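Example record

The entry below shows one chain as it appears in the dataset: sequence first, then structure tokens.
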Amino acid sequence: RAYLALGEYAYAKIAFESVMFFDDLPRDVHEQVEVYAGMAPDGEEDPRFRPFYYAQAGVGHFRENSTPASDLFGKTGPATFGNLDLGGGWAQDLNETYTFNGSLDLATRAYDRSDIRNDADLFWNFNLSRPIENDNLRFGVRGRVSYRGDNLFRNDFGLFGDYRVQLNEDQQLNVNMHVRTRRYPGELRNRTRDTASLSPRWTIAFNEGHTSLDLHAMVGRSWETKGRPDGNSDIWSTGASLDHAFSDTIDAFFWVEYESESFSEHRTDLAPANPDIPLQRTDDLYYVGAGLVWSVGSGWTVRPEVLYEYEDSNLDALTYSGTELWVNVRKRF
């Protein structure tokens, strides 16, 4: 809390995450630290159970950009959408060593066009954590339920382990291991797969604790379990995010992400013009985002954000690109 009182949010984040960590928090360091500070024991009557809650709503605009696929099949027209996000979490001290943590996040999006599917996702996470000197170990289960239209839902769930090492007040290393399954419904069932991944992350605080740089990567492998035509795949990704607190009320962030996925099966049905030439599918995904956070007091923030995505593939029909801009209002309880 001393770092927080001085406005050194990047230092405060590293200090708090040596004893607690929650998924599904906003990207900006300022809000993450405010959530952690609200959960830290402070002499209340029963500090063993420490919850947090939030609600977020807003409006945005979407447009599809030109790609080889849109040239073939046409674009989805521009659309306006509404966001609603409700969630929270808790930390329950079981004894002097272990803490039981949990979080739930329900995110929905509704479009003003009937030809675009509305989205709804429920993220859940239950884990045990324990401090190890200045480090932190977590292990547990987490998942996601996604609405796919026509009353069909996709389910993701798996086991994970997470170890965070606080090197000093301005550096933190993190390694996450995740084994999970993704189960598709109905006609999409053959996309069902299992995935194992390893994700290192390095967080650096600088500029007297006002700026945070996060560098991360992931390597993994996916195994088809229901006859996916493209077979198994090897995946790797890399990314970075930069956050800067201009003051106690203004925070801004910028992030980039790249992911590559290469599939194992040689297929002759992917290039009808050359049926004798086997082809292996490869995808390259690019994401760029930025946001501004304005704290207006009493846990309220105004949050404009922009996202650009480009999903490339050696199969023209699978390419996609979109740009989104939205403004959310968030309340932390």
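Notes for this example: The mean pLDDT is 93. DSSP finds four helices and 14 strands in the chain.
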